[in-house]
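Deliverable D2.4 — example input (structure tokens):
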């Protein structure tokens, strides 16, 4: 249990889940400061520090000490434009962020991965997510939480036609395959951050939904 207000490092604060998570963190009395680097300025808040610029360039400029780090970074092949660009975001940038967070003292890292993540998958998206998880494990975090949500549900700034078509159906799927609202995932991540433990914990989508109720 923390005796002093936590300092949190958050990547991906402008994303679907990241927005909900940032709002929750800033309203938690146990959080003293959230540092959330973004490309565009966030709404000002007395407990928010918001470095502006591309994340790769900002990582080396981050300083201070942190208790917990959240990584909500994620893209799609269509958004990234190529497999190489996708991997640069969903693997390389995630690993670089995690490495920097560990250098700044964070002991617990919580990362949004994906249902079905597997480095041996024949599906490129799931293969990259699996490789990302493996790379994070290799960093030797005292506490690492890998969240594997099913399809994320909620309004996005960008239009994703396929998600609009499949979202209603995802509510009908069983167990961990059922879609999960981004606000539910954000609540689950915060609850997981409060749990003390050691080593790596993989949390599948059905458990995330339960934790985020």
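Example output (designed residues):
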């Amino acid at each position: 249990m923390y005796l002093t207000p936590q300092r949190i490092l958050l990547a991906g604060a402008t994303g679907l889940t990241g927005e909900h998570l940032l709002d929750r963190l800033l309203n938690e009395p146990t959080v003293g400061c959230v540092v959330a680097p973004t490309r565009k300025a966030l709404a000002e808040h007395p407990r928010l520090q918001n470095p502006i610029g591309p994340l790769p360039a900002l990582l080396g400029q981050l300083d201070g000490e942190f208790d917990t780090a959240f990584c909500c970074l994620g893209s799609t092949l269509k958004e990234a434009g190529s497999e190489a660009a996708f991997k640069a975001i969903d693997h390389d940038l995630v690993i670089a962020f995690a490495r920097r967070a560990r250098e700044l003292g964070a002991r617990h890292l919580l990362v949004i991965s994906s249902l079905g993540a597997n480095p041996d998958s024949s599906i490129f998206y799931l293969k990259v997510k699996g490789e990302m998880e493996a790379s994070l494990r290799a960093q030797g975090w005292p506490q690492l939480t890998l969240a594997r949500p099913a399809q994320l549900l909620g309004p996005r700034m960008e239009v994703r036609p396929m998600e609009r078509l499949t979202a209603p159906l995802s509510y009908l799927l069983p167990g961990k395959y059922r879609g999960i609202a981004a606000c539910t995932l954000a609540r689950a991540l915060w609850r997981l951050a409060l749990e003390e433990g050691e080593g790596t914990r993989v949390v599948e989508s059905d458990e995330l939904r339960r934790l985020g109720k």
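Residues 120 and 127 are 6 Å apart (CA to CA).
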